[in-house]
Amino acid sequence: MVASAFTSSAVTRVAKVARVASSCATCVLPLVVAVGAVPMVLSAMGFTATGIASSSIAAKMMSAAAIANGGGVAPGSLVATLQSLGATGLSGLTKFILGSTGSAIAAGIARFY
C-alpha cells in the first residue's frame, strides 16, 4: 500500500514536471542535447565502456581518489559513479527525469525574462 502510494505520487510529480517543461519548447532543445551529450563527454574524459583510459582525466581522478582512500576507489564515489555511467550510459528513465527537471527549471527561469 505504501509503495504503491509513493509510486503514484512520484509518477504524478514527474507528469507535472513534464507538462511544465513542454510549455517551453525553446528551453527543451538545449537540455535534450545536454543529456544526450553525457556519454560523449564521459568518453572524452576517459570513462569508457571498457574501463578508464590511461593518461586521461579519468585516470588522474582515479589516481587521486585511490591515494585519498588508501589505495582503492570507494564504491559510490564520484569516480566510481562516472565510470559506471561511462560503461553503461544513462538509462531511459534517468534521461527522462534529467531532461524534464532541467526543462522545468529553465521554463521557470524563462518566465522572469
UniProtKB/TrEMBL annotation:
The keyword Nucleus does not apply. It is a multi-pass membrane protein. Pfam families: Ifi-6-16 (PF06140). The chain crosses the membrane at residues 20-53. GO terms for biological process: intrinsic apoptotic signaling pathway; release of cytochrome c from mitochondria. Its main location: membrane. One of its GO terms (cellular component) is mitochondrial membrane. Keywords: Membrane, Transmembrane, Transmembrane helix. Gene3D superfamilies: 6.10.110.10. It is found in: Membrane. Belongs to the IFI6/IFI27 family. This is Interferon alpha inducible protein 27. The gene is IFI27.
